[in-house]
Amino acid sequence: MRHPIVVTLAVAGFAALSACEKGIDKDAVDREFQGVNVVDETNLNDVMLTVGDPNEAVAYFQRALSQDPGRIDLMRGLAISLVKAKRITEAKIAWAKVVDHESATNDDRVELADVLIRSNDWPAAEKVLDAIPPTHETFKRYRLEAMIADGNKEWKKADSFYEIAVGLTTTPANVLNNWGYSKLTRGDYAEAEAMFYDAIRRDRNLFTAKNNLILARGAQGNYTMPVIPMSQVERAELLHTLGLAAVKRGDVEIGKGLLREAIDTHPQHFDSAARSLKALESSVTN
Q: Which spans of this chain does UniProt mark as TPR repeats (predicted)?
């Protein structure tokens, strides 16, 4: 692995030596050295956004902005880091400042809409998206549009936006899961089930889709476990979900049996399933 600081010092030293030998004025050397610093700073910005601790990244970009206020790349870095650190209230303010910058882009406006949704400010998010030209067609824009249409119960629009979003990404599992959950809330259980299967096919580790699949099957009175990739712990948790779904439909005895199976399946003590079963048995006894 190369060490940027060592390389920077080496280049700076070489530049200084060249200046002594050739009689180059100091300002020329400073300009050359400044160019090296800019390259290193850009690399550091990227590192802080990808592998750094989110709160450390926030502190880094705050320091950088205090020295060079108004630089939109640093403003974006701060806003992104605040979202990653789950400091949503601060992130809203940061993204609003980015959007107010003269060099702001439509992608920045989409990010502002995203953080507004995260803060549950749906009307404001919808207003921001409505102001973006329809020619700006990106995956994230359509995913957010779909979520807002869902919230407004505009089902046809939601389906259209979800379909477009799926077509604009190579990793659609999460979108398919969201779309399936939308179908689930509408009572379209069979369609929801198919979408959850598709989401799991695209990402076998997406437990949320597995759990939602169980809910869709349970809502249809189908209490058999689906053939999907799952660990022993996941199987126990899914049996727990299925048991509760059965109880919700009034199939209490089936639900109790599924909860017992969940407890037996889990490699450790399954406290939540044990509590659910105890509550059911107590209510029956009473």
A: 38-71
State the CB neighbour count (10 A cutoff) for residue 258: 27
Instruction: Please report, to the nearest 10 degrees, the dihedral formed by the alpha carbons of residues 273, 238, 249, 216 taken in order.
Output: 160
Contact 228, 216 (CB under 8 A): no
Assess contact for 244 and 214: CB atoms under 8 A.
no
Q: Name the strand (E) or helix (H) holding 86.
A: none
Q: Three-state SS across 258-286?
A: HHHHHHHHCCCCCHHHHHHHHHHHHHHHC
pLDDT in tens, 195-247: 999 999 999 999 999 999 999 999 999 999 999 999 999 999 999 999 999 99
**Using CA atoms, how far apart are residues 229 and 82, in angstroms rounded to an integer?**
35
CB atoms within 10 A of CB 218: 24
- The angle at the Cα of 55, spanning 51 to 59, to the nearest 5 degrees, equals 105
CA atoms within 13 A on the CB side of 245: 21
Whether the full predicted model's pTM is greater than 0.85, yes or no, is: no
- The pLDDT-based confidence of 27 (bands split at 50, 70, 90) is low
Residue 179 near residue 146, CB atoms below 8 Å: yes
3-state helix, strand, coil in the chain (%, to 5): 75, 0, 25
Q: Phi and psi for 154 in degrees, rounded to 5?
A: -95, 80
Placement of tokens 């090296």 in the chain: 36
